[in-house]
Design a protein that fits this description.
Blueprint: H1 4-32, H2 36-60, H3 67-82, H4 89-110, H5 123-138
């Protein structure tokens, strides 16, 4: 019968004979760069999964209207602002303020820089609206029927 000491020594000897060469080959492969592509792909997959989980969590915690509703309201108000030349000045101003608030909300949802919070008026504000509409279209949110840069 074998003694426990001999069994432990035998296990250590076998593990040294098997594990040391395996560890040497693995460390050589790692240092030689054989795993660089697979490690990089695994890292990228992990980052994509992490971003996806963050996005899903953000969608679950979303407060207020969904982006689709904000865009539908933007489209509706854009048509109203374009056709309200026959209405009173107060009505026109109310429509423009509502449109500006919706633009601001869409910009905050998509992390687009805007200057609508500043006290500007007239031509500067109109230019800022056009710039924001173009930025929204670059982000994939089409406020108009035509795509940005498309001729009328």
């Amino acid at each position: 019968m074998m003694d426990k000491y001999q069994m432990v020594l035998g296990a250590i000897a076998v593990s040294i004979m098997v594990l040391v060469p395996v560890l040497c080959v693995l460390s050589y492969d790692l240092l030689a760069g054989r795993w660089d592509a697979s490690l990089k792909a695994r890292r990228e997959r992990r980052e994509l999964n992490r971003d996806h989980r963050r996005s899903v969590r953000a969608l679950r915690r979303q407060a207020g209207l969904p982006l689709e509703d904000v865009v539908a309201n933007l489209r509706r108000l854009r048509l109203v602002v374009g056709d309200d030349a026959q209405r009173s000045a107060a009505h026109q101003m109310g429509n423009r303020l509502a449109y500006d608030r919706l633009l601001t909300q869409a910009c905050e949802m998509l992390d687009i820089e805007h200057e609508l919070a500043h006290e500007t008026g007239g031509m500067e504000r109109d230019i800022e609206r056009i710039r924001i509409e173009a930025e929204l279209e670059r982000a994939g949110v089409y406020v108009t029927d035509r795509h940005f840069g498309q001729a009328a």
